[in-house]
């Protein structure tokens, strides 16, 4: 299929597909007229890219994984892949912890606001925000 249909199928812009090509993440075949032709292999590759992006992998990390995917199976390849996945697991666990904390803060803020005692709860609300902000700074989130 051509780039427009391929991009539409995955609800992406054609420019995004072209960007992935420039980054050597996708390698469509070319027709005689120079048009790109996206086959089943391109679809599988794009699905993998989409999943990895959703998991928080950067373009550079995806390039690394695709390079490792193309290599012969070896201990070195396995260690590199495992190391990258371990880092992502750690990153995701940290994000989950952050979002769980954020959820508790939001729920508490909501409850305080629902009490309709803004004047009485103002100091508590401000303190919650300060504490949450400081926790974000410790995690390097701004």
UniProtKB/TrEMBL annotation:
Gene3D superfamilies: 1.10.1660.10
Domain of life: Bacteria
InterPro entries documented for this protein: DNA-bd_dom_put_sf, MerR-type_HTH_dom, MerR_fam
Cross-referenced PROSITE patterns: HTH_MERR_2 (PS50937)
GO molecular function terms noted in the UniProt entry: DNA binding; DNA-binding transcription factor activity
Keyword Heme part of the UniProt annotation: no
Coiled-coil region(s): 89-116
Stored Pfam families: MerR_1
Keyword Coiled coil: yes
Keywords per UniProt: Coiled coil, DNA-binding, Repressor, Transcription, Transcription regulation
Signal peptide: none
CDD domains per UniProt: HTH_MerR-like (cd00592)
Residue intervals of the HTH merR-type domain: 1-68
PANTHER family linked: MERR-FAMILY TRANSCRIPTIONAL REGULATOR, REDOX-CYCLING DRUG-SENSING TRANSCRIPTIONAL ACTIVATOR SOXR
Protein name per UniProt: MarR family transcriptional regulator
Species this protein is from: Shouchella clausii (Alkalihalobacillus clausii)
């Amino acid at each position: 299929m051509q780039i427009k249909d391929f991009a539409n199928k995955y609800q992406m812009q054609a420019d995004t597909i072209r960007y992935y090509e420039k980054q050597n993440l996708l390698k469509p075949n070319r027709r005689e007229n120079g048009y790109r032709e996206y086959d089943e292999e391109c679809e599988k590759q794009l699905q993998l890219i989409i999943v990895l992006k959703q998991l928080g992998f950067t373009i550079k990390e995806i390039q690394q994984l695709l390079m490792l995917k193309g290599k012969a199976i070896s201990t070195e390849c396995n260690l590199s892949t495992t190391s990258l996945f371990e880092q992502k697991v750690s990153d995701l666990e940290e994000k989950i912890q952050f979002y769980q904390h954020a959820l508790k803060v939001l729920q508490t803020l909501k409850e305080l606001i629902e009490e309709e005692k803004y004047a009485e709860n103002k100091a508590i609300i401000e303190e919650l925000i300060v504490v949450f902000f400081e926790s974000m700074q410790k995690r390097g989130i701004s």
